[in-house]
Each structure stands twice: as structure tokens, then as C-alpha cells.
Design a protein that fits this description.
Length: about 475
């Protein structure tokens, strides 16, 4: 696309754009490009009933959809726009590289379609906590009276947002809270955020990225070109390393967040108070109270430490944008966590039941397990290549018992045998969805008053459930059955 002007949407007119994949981001991208006059071809490997229905809708807009072949590059393609999940090693992208055709992600496309007065982005990534943090951030920004939205990997396509779809006529955003995955960042070389945070780094999606080094590098792209603040996790030095490696605008600052007492240019916690020593006049001697730990929406009782960390990260980004301290407190108080994220379900016979089905990897499960004492842990599913020794070693002292489910439960059982040999383990061989009811009954049998039965699987759900939401719903249903039975 020689001479392409990224600030002129009309420049797409007549260009041949290939969109890789139907789905949450692919369909909006195809629809938007067709509206800008591009000749759009969508390629998709699967050819099912759902895909055919989507193809029929897009055909009415003049979009060509090729089902059953996602590997061949359509002749004459000027640029490929990909959905996040497609691996960089896909034959389509290898063919594009050989032909000198650029590959953009949906986020890159959205960035290039922004107008000259577009809202700045406050961007969030990390292995865990992205969605909670970006929604906390949006709540704080709204409390400050700013027109904002939580968008991106949270499930709201950025292409639709920047083109104004779904907004009242004449309204604009002041700022956007943007969740970005490592997949999206890999294909987004031009994105330049106002301020950004990498919450944490732990091995995840290595089958896609190829190595931990490549995964971290893609996460680190979020800092490139930051204008005001690069926010990092003091407890995770790898995130600060990414800040050091980033090429940012002159004057952009490194801001740390910590669950401990903050130093200058950090936000942290002092005697149960969230405080700011980064965006005050005298960072060496002054601190600004932002909120109390009790203001961080708890699932039950005391908020989990990782949610306090998420709140601090959100507060740092908001303060970087000039939000007053009072709005941080108000925004955190009005925020309500999404379901299946360390969500208290019920108390039955003095035992607390907590659903953290969203804990689909070991890093998330470790944070969840750290939030409770005396745990009966329900775990297992698809391991995605993970190992569990460090997780079990860290949590061993908190475990009263463990109930294992899912295809790769043996990997967790073996880690328990090595690092927590005295902890009782129930290994459920059945892998149908009804296994959750049995798992909850077994957990109830093993639990004592004051314990927490915690669903924090440390694994993906697709061996038994459609997604982690359905797994969490099955857990909640099983707890409801337990309560109804009078246990």
C-alpha cells in the first residue's frame, strides 16, 4: 500500500484487504472496511452453519467470504487484517511476508482509522488481571466525569469504537480504557498509548508465541511511544525491564505499583490506605490518599491481594491522565467485578464457596489461592503445557484438601505428591459436565467450618465445558444444590 495515509480512511477505497477469520474482531473489521470502500475478502478455515450465516450477512455488504480455506493468500491482496488468535506461523501470513504484504491486527486497523482528534488510549495488558483492571479504570474515569468506555480485548471491538458505532450521534469519548492481549500487541506496531501498564508476566500462550522471551516482548510493545507514564509492577521486575527497553516520548515517566509502602514515583499501600507518591508536587516527602483497601470491591470480606494490585494499577493510569484522588475512591467503590473472578457464591454450613473459574493458568490460580487460608481446592482441566510444581509448593500450607477434575488432572496430582504429600486428594475420573456436582459434594465432605472451597482450576476449561463461564456456572449450580439439600 505505497503512499498509504493512516489518517485518511478514504485511502482504503479500492484497496484489496484480506481479513483473516470470522469472529468477534474479524466481522467488525470486514464490515468497517467495506464501509470505507475497500474490496474485502474474508478467509476462514472452518465452514460450519454459523460461519455460513455470517458469510451471508457480509455478502450483503459486498464482502467476499471464502470458507474452508484460511491458508491461501487471495491474489492482489494489499494488506491482511487478522483476528488475534491466528498464529504468526500460519501459512497465510508466511505467504503475505513472501509477497511483501503487511499484516495488521484488528487493533492496528483501529489505531490507523482514528481521527485527528481521537480520544487517547490508556492501555492495559498482563498475563492476568487485564479485564478487572481496565473495568476499574473505566469506572474511575467515569467517576471523574470523563466520557469513556472499557474496550478492546474485553469484548468490545476497537474498530467499532473508533468509527463511532453504537454511540449517540454527536458524542465523543474523552479517553478510552483499552485492554490489549499479547496476540493483539504482536500485530499492532503503530499503537502509541497516552499511558500503559503491564500488570504481570508469567508463562502463557507459549505455543502461540514460541517462547517466553517472545511473549514478553509482545507484551512490552504496549509501552512503545507512551507519552506520560509507563506503569509497572514493583513485585514483578520483568515488567520494569520492559519499561527500560521501551522507546517512549521525552518526559514519559516510569511509575511503579506495589502492595507495600510506595517509594517516590510509586503508588502503594500504607496502613490499609492506597496512596500516591507519583503524581504529587513533592514525591520525596508527600503522599496523596486515594482510597482504602475496603473500597476495592471484595468478593467476600477482605479483598484479594491481586485485586488491590489491579486497583493500584488502574489508579496509576487514571492519575497519569489527571484524574483527582476523590474520583479514584468513588470509581473503586462503584466498580463491581465480573462473574467467575474470585466471586463469592454462598456460605453453606460455615464453609465459604468461591468461584474463580477465570483462573485458567497457574499464575492466576496462585493469586487466588493466596487470598484464603484453609482451602479445599477444586482444580484441573486442560493444562496448555503448564507445570504445577511451583504453584503447589507455594500453596501447600493453605491446602486442607484437593479435588481434581479434568483431562490433565494427573499433572496436578503428581505435583501434590511431590510437594504436599499429606494433603488428601480426591481424583475424579469422569470428565462430563456433571463431574462438577460430584466435585462440590466431595469438597463439602472434606471442608470444615471456616474453610473456603475454592474453584481455581489453573487450567483451561474446554475439555469439559464450552468456556470458563460455563464451568463457573456449573460450580455455582452445584453449590446451590448443596445448600438446597441442607448441607
Amino acid at each position: 500500500m505505497t503512499g498509504y495515509d493512516p489518517r485518511d480512511p478514504q485511502d482504503f477505497a479500492g484497496r484489496h484487504v484480506t481479513v483473516a477469520g470470522l469472529g468477534v474482531s474479524g466481522v467488525p473489521a470486514a464490515r468497517a472496511l467495506a464501509g470505507l470502500g475497500a474490496r474485502v475478502t474474508v478467509v476462514n478455515g472452518s465452514d460450519g452453519e454459523r460461519e455460513r450465516a455470517q458469510a451471508a450477512e457480509l455478502a450483503e455488504l459486498g464482502v467476499t467470504v471464502r470458507l474452508g480455506d484460511g491458508e491461501t493468500l487471495p491474489e492482489g491482496t494489499d494488506v491482511v487484517v487478522t483476528s488475534p488468535g491466528w498464529k504468526p506461523t500460519s501459512p497465510l501470513f508466511l505467504a503475505a511476508a513472501e509477497a511483501g504484504v503487511p499484516v495488521w491486527g484488528d487493533v492496528e486497523l483501529a489505531w490507523r482509522l482514528r481521527g485527528p482528534d481521537a480520544a487517547p488510549w490508556l492501555a492495559v495488558t498482563g498475563t492476568n488481571g487485564k479485564t478487572t483492571t481496565v473495568r476499574m479504570l473505566a469506572s474511575i474515569l467515569s467517576a471523574a466525569g470523563l466520557r469513556t468506555a472499557a474496550v478492546g480485548n474485553i469484548g468490545v471491538p476497537l474498530v467499532d469504537v473508533v468509527l463511532g458505532e453504537g454511540r449517540a450521534e454527536g458524542t465523543t469519548y474523552d479517553v478510552l480504557a483499552v485492554e490489549l492481549s499479547s496476540y493483539q500487541l504482536h500485530w499492532a506496531p503503530s499503537v502509541r498509548a497516552h499511558s500503559a501498564v503491564v500488570l504481570n508476566l508469567a508463562p502463557d500462550h507459549l505455543d502461540w508465541h514460541g517462547s517466553m522471551t517472545a511473549y514478553a516482548a509482545d507484551k512490552g510493545r504496549i509501552y512503545e511511544g507512551n507519552a506520560v507514564a509507563c506503569v509497572y509492577n514493583v513485585a514483578d521486575p520483568a515488567t520494569e525491564d520492559l519499561v527500560r527497553a521501551a522507546d517512549v516520548e521525552e518526559g514519559c515517566r516510569a511509575i511503579g505499583f506495589t502492595l507495600g509502602t510506595p517509594g517516590p514515583s510509586q503508588v502503594g499501600v500504607v496502613d490499609g490506605i492506597l496512596v500516591d507518591r507519583a503524581f504529587v508536587e513533592n514525591r520525596q516527602q508527600q503522599a496523596q490518599e486515594l482510597a482504602e483497601i475496603a473500597d476495592v470491591a471484595p468478593a467476600s470480606g477482605k479483598p484479594a491481594p491481586h485485586n488491590v494490585a489491579n486497583a493500584l494499577a488502574a489508579a496509576a493510569l487514571a492519575r497519569a491522565f489527571g484524574v483527582p484522588a476523590a474520583a479514584v475512591r468513588e470509581g473503586l467503590r462503584s466498580f463491581h467485578p465480573d462473574p467467575h473472578r474470585i466471586q463469592h457464591v454462598a456460605d453453606v454450613a460455615g464453609v465459604s464457596y468461591v468461584d474463580d473459574s477465570k483462573a485458567t493458568n497457574t499464575h492466576a490460580a496462585e493469586a487466588s489461592l493466596a487470598a484464603y487460608e484453609n482451602i479445599v481446592w477444586i482444580a484441573g482441566g486442560l493444562a496448555k503445557g503448564a507445570t504445577f510444581d511451583e504453584l503447589v509448593r507455594t500453596a501447600a500450607g493453605r491446602l486442607r484438601a484437593v479435588v481434581l477434575i479434568g483431562a490433565d488432572r494427573a499433572l496436578i496430582r503428581e505435583a501434590l505428591e511431590r510437594h504436599a504429600p499429606d494433603v488428601p486428594v480426591v481424583d475424579l475420573a469422569r470428565t462430563d459436565t456433571g463431574a462438577m456436582s460430584e466435585a462440590v459434594r466431595e469438597a463439602a465432605r472434606l471442608a470444615e467450618a471456616g474453610d473456603t472451597v475454592l474453584l481455581a482450576p489453573a487450567c483451561a476449561s474446554m475439555d469439559m465445558f464450552v468456556n470458563y463461564n460455563k464451568r463457573g456456572e456449573a460450580f455455582a449450580d452445584a453449590v446451590g444444590e448443596l445448600a438446597a439439600a441442607g448441607h
